[in-house]
Amino acid sequence: MATLYHHPLCPHSRFVRLILAEHAIETTLIEERAAERRREFLALDPAGRTPVLVDDDGTVVSGAMVIAEYLEETADPELNRLRLLPQTPRERAETRRLTEWFNLKFYEEVTNWLVTEKVYKRFLAPEIGGGAPDMDLLRVARANIRPHMRYIGYLTGARNWLAGETLSLADFAAAAHLSCADYLGDVPWDEYETVKHWYQRIKSRPAFRPLLSDRAVGTTPAACYADLDF
Amino acid sequence: MATLYHHPLCPHSRFVRLILAEHAIETTLIEERAAERRREFLALDPAGRTPVLVDDDGTVVSGAMVIAEYLEETADPELNRLRLLPQTPRERAETRRLTEWFNLKFYEEVTNWLVTEKVYKRFLAPEIGGGAPDMDLLRVARANIRPHMRYIGYLTGARNWLAGETLSLADFAAAAHLSCADYLGDVPWDEYETVKHWYQRIKSRPAFRPLLSDRAVGTTPAACYADLDF
């Protein structure tokens, strides 16, 4: 069985867990606090970032998008399973652009601040950055999420799913990041009805269930986090 | 003919220019100062980052790795050209991991500081971040480049090229970022002989020539920048 080194509130790990679940690939989960820079973890991935997948043949694949591409390439074609990258190069480029949008831009502007300040810092020693959350950074993240909500609303208003007519990696990237912000109570759902409807559709998928029952040590999820009718 | 929106000292643009040149795809280059957030450029790519490729059928592809994947997928298979992503999923994962290493990690730790402080800030209005370079940030970037040089040295000591036995996207990503640092005189070549030998091999390729004759307005390249025997 494959192994995934992850953190429950690492949005990139959640992105990969959603893809694995959609493909019905069972995985052993190992929780990793990347900031502690554990020697054995750095030996697997010198960049020292979650997620890292160790496939059952020992292949080490690290980085959210690298793992996503690897899973697309290695999934058994006989299974005629869901494809999360569409067929044409143009559609694939749009899917990758939006996947990167969430995994890089949304992360830099929103989830990195929320998760680092509210979760990671609580468990780090002060000499490696631990401490109380910086409220100014949280305010910036909560302001930054709004243009992203508008953009998701614009896309899902014009298309069936984020990158086009079919469900794709882009939807899972967006949902993974939003689910972290949602766990922490930082998504202004009521102001963005179209986004809420799109998120309800993806949140109802069986692949989402394990994320909804996740509990990060010492952090209680927001009241409606696991509610499908929030 | 395809069009590439780029900046001469944007390392991600250089990465794409190298790939286009290796594939002998002629492109019209349009210089873009992304920080100015020109309306027509944002309409092409809402993330507002170089590079953006507009293919000759009008397909807009934005982001360095997204363009690289698109070029791999669309290049004419009849031409039996150089493949910059290897054949097996395991090798492809290693190539993508290292490409991302340079395009994200090296960029965050080295090239972003060097190019922003030494080049971009000179041409920006003060109200959008223009001004004199911050010498502390430059010192940090010059310290940060050293572990990367050791890592490139380790990889090229153990393998023929960065990601394995064949030339790949990873080599062009590393070379693109190093070429920006080299233009600005910030690569300590003399301390890393193995890296220098690898860089000499890639710098000698015809695809590299246009980069070596590049001149960014107001910034003169370091003395040995265009010298193949530096």
UniProtKB/TrEMBL annotation, chains A, B:
GO terms for molecular function: glutathione transferase activity. It comes from the Bacteria. One of its GO terms (biological process) is glutathione metabolic process. Residues 88-230 form the GST C-terminal domain. Homodimer. Residues 1-79 form the GST N-terminal domain. InterPro entries: Glutathione-S-Trfase_C-like, Glutathione-S-Trfase_C_sf, Glutathione_S-Trfase, Glutathione_S-Trfase_N, GST_C, Thioredoxin-like_sf. Keywords: Transferase. This is Glutathione S-transferase family protein. Pfam families: GST_C, GST_N_3. The keyword Transferase applies.
